[in-house]
Amino acid sequence: MSLQDNIQRVSREIAQAALAAGRNPDEITLVAATKVQTSQTIREAIAAGITVCGENRVQEFTAHWADNAYEGAKVHFIGHLQKNKVKYLVGRVDLIESVDSAELLQAIARRAVQQGVVQDILIEVNIGGEASKSGVSPALVDELFALAVETPGVRPRGLMTIPPVAVGKNGNKRFFAEMQQLFVDIKGKTYDNRDSVDCLSMGMSGDFVQAIAYGATQVRIGTALFGSRPPVRQNG
Q: Residue 29 maps to which CATH number?
């Protein structure tokens, strides 16, 4: 199938999942995970209806940005972010989804204040407690989110997670349910800017239908759109 066919198919599946959950399909944003894709492929995806691209790597983002590949779409940064690379993203991407520490939060805020912008962010949650993944533990979400609310230069929009690899059809049901509850709790406690806390980013190619059933407002889809990524090249 062509890229356009894949985008149309996934969009239909998102709409069907939303309706099955009693939700409005317009509430869910398809974020095309464009890791390792070329600028030309990104342009083709946008021409075929993609409105948000999600980048994992700062180096790839800056190359595509310089190439004007994202014209006509928003860009989210969805990968692990080091503090020394914040300067390449703030004021350029619409949303940084992977804020996982107070130190990173403050680095983003300082850069945003310097540039005179307010950077939208999500707090990344390590919902499965996996040592190999970034994210704050569920027990510390309240603390980090409250800090973000009080920090000039950033606007916390909600939460993001990458749960463990699902085993079976309902493998991530528990993790998605926990994230949904965290999101509801956070939104309920954020009195001053409750209306701007509107984003729960979870679900990828293998589990986005289930994520939508548990309140996801954004799903990050790569393989189902672009096919399997090429293997990482090994030195030597």
A: 3.20.20.10
The tokens for 161 are 């997670």
Print the domain residue range for 192. Answer: 3-224
Can you tell me the distance from the alpha carbon of 121 to that of 85, in angstroms, rounded to the nearest whole number?
15
State the Rg of the chain over Cα: 17
Helix H or strand E segment including 95:
strand 95-99
CB atoms within 10 A of CB 184: 12
Tell me whether residue 153 is in a domain. Answer: yes
> Pick from 171, 217, 215, 204: which is nearest to 35 by CA?
204
- Tens-place pLDDT, residues 86-140: 999 999 999 999 999 999 999 999 999 999 999 999 999 999 888 888 899 999 9
Q: Is 205 helix (H, G, I), strand (E, B) or coil?
A: coil
pLDDT (tens digit per residue) in 56-72:
999 999 999 999 999 99
Q: How many domains does the chain have?
A: 1
